[in-house]
Amino acid sequence: MIIVLEGKDEYRLSERVSEFRLTVTPPEMSDINTTRLDGNIVTIEELLTSLTTVPFMADRRLVIVEGLLNRLGGSKKDLGEWLNFPDLLKNLPPTANLLLIEREPIPSNKLLSTILRLGQVEKFSPLRHRDLLDWINTRCSKLGLDIERTAVALIADSVGSELRLIDSELNKIKTYSRGRLITREDITLMVPYVRQQNVFRVVDSVIEGRTRDALNASSMLIELGESPSGIVRMIERQLRFLILAKHLLSRKIPTGDIGKHINLSGYPLQKTLEMERKISQARIMSMHDNLLKSNIRVREGKLTEQESFDLLISELR
Fold first, then answer.
1. Is the dihedral of CA 256, 260, 261, 262 positive or negative?
2. 101-160: pLDDT as tens digits
3. CATH code of the domain covering residue 35
4. Contacts of 317 by beta carbon, 8 Å cutoff, 6+ apart
5. The pLDDT of residue 176 is above 70
6. In this model, does residue 190 exceed pLDDT 70?
7. How many domains does the chain have?
8. Judgement on whether residues 102 and 31 belong to the same structural domain of the protein
9. Alpha carbon of 120 to those of 15, 54, 98, 114, 291: distances in Å?
10. Tell me, what CATH number does 205's domain have?
11. Domain that residue 138 falls in
């Protein structure tokens, strides 16, 4: 069996991988009969050896390879030993299960088209808003949570499609709720968390030129009690983190050590490093200059806080 999992929805994709791991029975033999390989460096001999190894006291073996198909998306002259890979896949033993994981879109060439026809492709794109609401409702049902529609909408609007974070928060809410109905007011108890998510969404949207999304995320922060000037300060703080991250990376500081230097960890650090890759130093400094101009407009009484903020968002594009 050959299965291809493609997409950037890390949480749903990882859940699917866990489901496939459960197909190796008995369960206590799953780990010893599961092999993970790095598709960027694995040789065809190593892969075939893993696939043809006889399962140990189990009904099958599961071989998980990440990134191989994107590696094979190059020109024919770079493929070498992999050109015969489709023919070898056709002769796999029935005990072999191959799981190919691709976080990036799979390129198109004759070799990859042949490989894809041999298996089943499942796509895991980030959920659209309606699908996200359905996902949250389904997850709440599994957790036994009774939750208002407006509370579900607030989670979706605040966090977006970060499913792992949503799942983590829902588990916390389950402990907090003790079986009672979860309301929108309960979700606003997560204000520090919700605000942080929306700051990331504002900055992300500005970087990618999505003015409407930036304004929507800002409106959510204001609805939660934040002032326009407070949002500006949070954006300034995020820009400082980006400047520091860029500086440290330019000094060849390992990515794993960046958090200790700028006093960030977990999701905020992850998002900061993601943003750092999207934006140039010149763009960050330009955005910072616009923030200063916005503050000056308000102090000199030329515009109200809200007027200056709305203008700022359009200037940051």
1. positive
2. 998 889 888 889 999 999 999 999 988 889 999 999 999 999 999 999 999 988 887 777
3. 3.40.50.300
4. 206, 209, 211
5. yes
6. no
7. 3
8. yes
9. 17, 23, 11, 12, 50
10. 1.20.272.10
11. 129-189
Residue written as token pair 């291809």: 4
End residue of a domain, out of 91, 123, 155: 123
Residue 152 in tokens = 């579900």
Q: Residue 138: which CATH number?
A: 1.10.8.60
| Whole-structure pTM value | 0.63
CB 20 within 8 A of CB 1: no
**Could you tell me if 262 and 177 lie in one domain?**
no
Same domain, 87 and 171: no
Q: Give Dmax over CA atoms of the chain in angstroms.
A: 77
* 178 and 246 share one domain: no
Torsion from C-alpha of 223, 227, 233, 235, nearest 10 degrees: 30
Measure the CA–CA gap between 230 and 92, rounded to whole angstroms. Answer: 60
